[in-house]
Amino acid sequence: MLNSHWLAVPFVLQMLCMAADELIFHRRRGLPRWERIGHPLDTLTVVICLGWILLFPPSRGSVAVFAALAVLSCVFVTKDEPVHRRYCSAAEQWVHSVLFMLHPIVLASAALLWPAAAGSPARWVIETSGFERIFLTAVCVLILAFAVYQFVFWNLLWRPKTNAR
C-alpha cells in the first residue's frame, strides 16, 4: 500500500523544475509576449484542476469533470512549443520535457489524494495520514500565487533589454 506522503514527491519535483525554468532560463532570455500571457494561463489550468478537487467530493460525475480538466491542462501546456523551439536553449528544452512528464503525474497524484482530502479515503489504494487536504490546499494557493507572480512580473514589472523581442 502506498503512503500518501509519497504522492507529494511529484509536486516537489515539479516546483523545483518550475523554479529552475523561471529563475534561470526565463530570466536569462526574457519572454516574448506570447509566453508572458501563456505561462500564467498554463499555471491557472493546474489551479482549476486542484480547485475542482478541493470544492467537490469524488463522485462519478466529478471524477469525469476532473479527468477532462486534467487532459485539457496537459494539452494546453504544450501550446508554447513552437515558440520554445525558436527561443530556448537545449537545457531549457530538457527542463520543459521533464515538466511535461511531471504534469500528468502531478494531476494523477492529486486525484489519488482526492478521496482522503474529501474525508473518504480509499484505504485499499493509499495509506492516508490526514495531511492530504491541507497539502492540496497549500499547493493550490502556492500555484495560484505563482500565476499572479508570473502575470505581474512579466507583464507589468519586467522591461525587455534593448535587443529582446
Number of strands: 2
Mean pLDDT: 93
Give me the secondary-structure category: mainly alpha
Largest sheet: 2 strands, parallel
Radius of gyration: 17 Å
Question: For the terminal residues, how far apart are their CA atoms?
Answer: 51 Å
Helix content: over 70%
Number of domains: 1
Uncertain stretches: none
Secondary structure elements and pairings:
Blueprint: E1 2-3, H1 9-29, H2 33-55, H3 60-76, H4 81-87, H5 90-117, E2 126-127, H6 132-157
Parallel strand pairs: 1-2
Helix pairs in contact: 1-5, 2-3, 2-5, 2-6, 3-5, 5-6
Quick structural gist:
With 165 residues, the chain is mainly α. It has helices at 9-29, 33-55, 60-76, 81-87, 90-117, 132-157, and strands spanning 2-3, 126-127.
Architecture overview:
The structure is a single chain. The chain has about 160 residues and is mostly helical. The protein has one domain. About 75% of the residues lie in helices and about 0% in strands. It is elongated, with a radius of gyration of 17 Å. The termini are far apart.
